[in-house]
Amino acid sequence: MGDIYVTGHRNPDTDSIVAAIAYANLQNALGERSYKAVRLGSVNDETARLLARFGTDAPPLVKNMRTQVLDLDYDRTPALDRSVPLDLAWRTMSEGSFSVAPIVNEDGRLFGMLSAGDIASYDMETITRNRIDDVPLFNLLSVLEGTLVNELNCTASSVSGELYIALPQNYKDTALTSPDTILICGDQPEIIDEAIESGVRTLIICRATLRPEWAEAPGELAVISTPLSARRVSRIIYQALPVERIIKSTDIVAFHLADYIDDVKEIMLKSRFRSYPVLDSSDRVVGTISRFHLLRPRRKQVVLVDHNEAAQSVPALDQVEILEIIDHHRLADIQTTQPIRVRNEPVGSTNTILTAMYQERGIVPPPKIAGLMAGAILSDTVMFKSPTCTKRDIAMAERLARIAGVGLDEIGRELYAAGATDAKSAEELFTADYKQFHIAEQNIGVSQITCVDADHLLSRRDEFLKLMRRLKEKQDFDMVLLMITDVLQEGSHIFYVGSDDVIRQAFNKEPRDSHIFLKGVMSRKKQIIPMLTALWG
Q1: Are residues 394 and 483 in the same domain?
Q2: For the purposes of burial, counting CB atoms within 10 Å of the CB of 343, is it exposed (0-12), middle (13-18) or buried (19 or more)?
Q3: Model pLDDT, residue 420
Q4: Are residues 381 and 318 in the same domain?
């Protein structure tokens, strides 16, 4: 079973990041060790400060959840060394019932691909061939199941020559005594003695009684004894050739584990190979893949927290299997192919729901996880001042703070000390907590910056509006809004790019220079989006 990814929304806020960490920790504590928290965007300053406060690393970043080669049940085909004989390669492929084998160098990296067709084609060529060259002696001994009779004297490392089978009627054939001969004979002592004396380089003795003096043959001669028949030897001797000698080792189409199957399909459609090697990140062979494996890919499994809207979720959401959704926002447009668990509650923070899930399962979160969850509740409820905040949020946050051994006021001060600063660009501030929404055929983008003093941000009005106009044009949005939420003023300044009439009608406020201030408005989810939804129907 592969990893199950737990992720919040794009441009994650503190609640989103901590919810992914907390849920993965809960499931792993219950024995499901495959849950892994991830994030879809950068960690903002507030979240980074909270993570550092409790000694926790940010979840790893994932750019998308597109199905990759590593998600497929590709064949774990054995990778054979380039030096193995054809005979061994054929037997390995036959026993494993696969028709293609990757051939590798000593370091495990791809050298070439060997197919059953390559072996068959080479075997057909040997019918009219009567010669082999530079066959490693080790390979030959293995294929012939033979022993080296003059092992103590032999200095040969490979054999070459014309193949001859010694028969009684060609006893006087001069070819039998040529140095450039590989002589195959049976229990024929006279021929063997003459061949040794005349300087034959390779002598293969089939099913014969060996004489002691043959073990003293000179070093340049290889005397091999085999239990196989002469006819059998004459056929399989060609199979002692190393596989590297007959395969193609250039222009090989290969795929890496990280490659996306959409791209793999495109490449396969343009080539005609039956099977393709699969490589890891170090270019070492791990198996093979064919068109068959693309028919039913194993999708990545995902749990969504703090969102249930496709535009806010992981790219390539249609390629994943969603297992569960835990959220506190309105129900949106995510669809699944089968029933899943959905937990959606009207509270101010996803971590309030997760705290209840810990309680229901009898699991006490570790102190640092509890501290993170308490901070996330404070963040998403704007220190309990947001209209989304409930009595349950406050109770859960206090309970978590006691487990963590910290005070809520202390965490709150640290959260907002990490707020917006003049050192950041307008784009960094805007994208830190930015979400997209699709409401009644209207596409909008809404960013929120929470701070304890809005004046220095209001002075950068022109920077924000320029950025928002550019975003509206690029994304073809109907409207782009920026909420600058002041915790002390308990309200939000709204900058917008779009229709004045929409703002006027939605919030019953007269805009001026693309700006309004909404007293008591602290929540994008519960106050801004519902107003626009009611307006647009």
Answers
A1: no
A2: middle
A3: 47
A4: yes
Q: Which of 417, 434, 458 lies at the terminal end of a domain, its last residue?
A: 417
Q: What is the CATH number of the domain that holds 496?
A: 3.10.310.20
Q: Is 106 helix (H, G, I), strand (E, B) or coil?
A: coil
Q: What is the pLDDT of residue 510?
A: 93
Cβ pair 13, 317 in contact under 8 A? no
The verdict on 432 and 413 lying in the same domain is no
pLDDT of the residue at 422: 62
CB atoms within 10 A of CB 484: 26
The confidence score (pLDDT) of residue 173 equals 64
Of 417, 444, 466, the last residue of a domain is: 417
- 3-class DSSP string for 43-78: CCHHHHHHHHHCCCCCCCECCCCCCEHHHCCCECCC
Give the strands of the sheet with 110-115, arranged side by side.
Answer: 80-81, 100-104, 110-115
Q: Structure tokens of 333?
A: 């447009």
- The answer to the question of residue 58 being in a domain is yes
Please report the sign of the dihedral spanned by the C-alpha atoms of residue 282, residue 283, residue 285, residue 290.
Answer: positive
Nearest to 531 by CA among 508, 514, 495, 506: 506
Looking at the structure, do residues 458 and 380 belong to the same domain, yes or no?
no
Number of domains comprising the chain: 2
pLDDT at 536: 87
Task: Kindly write down the DSSP assignment for every residue of 311-339, as one continuous string.
Answer: GGS-TTGGGEEEEEEEESS---S---SS-
Per the listing, tokens 């002696």 go with 137
Lookup result for tokens 């109770």:
395
CATH number of the structural domain spanning residue 23: 3.90.1640.10
Element of type H or E holding 353: helix 350-361
Tokens of 129: 């061939």
- At residue 368, the pLDDT reads 96
| Low pLDDT (below 70) residues in the chain | 1, 168-176, 417-422
Q: How does DSSP assign 82-98, residue by residue?
A: TTSBHHHHHHHHHHHT-
- The reply to whether 370 and 478 lie within a common domain is no
- Distance from C-alpha of 258 to C-alpha of 225, rounded to nearest angstrom: 50
Q: Is residue 525 in a domain? A: yes
Supply 226's token pair.
Answer: 């085999």
pLDDT of res. 529: 92
Co-location of 406 and 487 in the same domain: no
Structure tokens at 519: 């007293």
The residues pairing with 491 across neighbouring beta strands, listed in sequence order, are: 486, 519
Indicate whether 139 belongs to any domain: no
Give the model confidence (pLDDT) of 39-61 as tens digits: 999 998 889 999 999 999 999 99
Q: What is the pLDDT of residue 45?
A: 85
Q: What is the pLDDT of residue 97?
A: 84
Report residue 448 CA to chain centroid gap: 33
- Closest to 390 in 3D by CA, of 406, 377, 404: 377
> DSSP 3-state helix, strand, coil percentages of the chain (rounded to 5)?
40, 25, 35
132 found inside a domain: no
Are 450 and 370 part of one and the same domain? no
Give the separation between CA 63 and CA 38, rounded to whole angstroms. Answer: 10
If asked whether residues 481 and 502 sit together in one domain, one would say yes
Domain membership of residue 505 as a residue range: 426-536
